[in-house]
Design goal:
CATH topology of one domain: Immunoglobulin-like
Number of strands: 9
Mean pLDDT: 73
Number of helices: 1
Strand content: 25-35%
Shape: globular
CATH superfamily of one domain: Carboxypeptidase-like, regulatory domain
Largest sheet: 5 strands, antiparallel
CATH architecture of one domain: Sandwich
Order of helices and strands: HEEEEEEEEE
CATH class of one domain: Mainly Beta
Low-confidence stretches: 1-26, 32-40, 69-80
Length: 177
């Protein structure tokens, strides 16, 4: 905003210098230049809008009833109503838990995130999701550990898809750098 005001001021200065009236001592009229509106320090009173004039009270002409439309032929996709619990444990290659590891759950094949959380002190995590297919990303809090997708995959495109139709366990073993 400061840059805009500075450029506007410079442009006005150059215009004033080039104008034939610049030799006079009177200041040029700059009202409305740049259309910058400054809020007033006191609020202006709110004036009510004029009320609309009522329309004529004549009864509208009768209209035809629309013809019935054909029934929908496509069946809607069924909604998942089963709440499934996904639990798991994140450990290092020695079997020790990795607390505070960020675990992200992505719905597959759309690859949008449906859950995110961190592991507890024992490396455990829990999510409740609808039945479906998911991908998991594990991001440890230490830079000495490697972040990865489930089953040691490097990207969301190569990540293993886990089908969830009931309570499911998804454990992860993260390697060091």
């Amino acid at each position: 905003m400061k840059l805009f005001v500075a450029m506007l001021s410079l442009s006005l200065f150059v215009c004033v210098l080039r104008s034939p009236a610049s030799s006079s001592l009177a200041a040029p009229d700059l009202s409305g230049v740049g259309n910058i509106v400054h809020p007033s320090p006191t609020p202006s009173p709110i004036t009510p809008l004029p009320s609309a004039t009522p329309a004529t009270t004549e009864t509208p002409a009768p209209t035809a009833t629309p013809a019935p439309t054909a029934a929908r032929t496509a069946t809607p996709r069924p909604r998942c109503t089963t709440a499934c619990q996904i639990t798991g444990r994140v450990t290092n290659t020695s079997g020790f838990p990795i607390p505070n590891t960020r675990v992200n759950v992505y719905r597959s094949p759309e690859n949008f995130i449906v859950g995110s959380g961190v592991t507890d002190a024992n490396g455990n995590y829990t999510f409740t999701v609808a039945s479906g297919t998911y991908k998991f990303f594990f991001n440890p809090p230490f830079t000495t550990m490697v972040a990865e997708w489930y089953a040691d995959k490097a990207s969301i495109n190569s990540a293993n898809v886990v089908s969830v139709a009931g309570n499911t366990t998804v454990n992860a073993v993260l390697a060091g750098r």
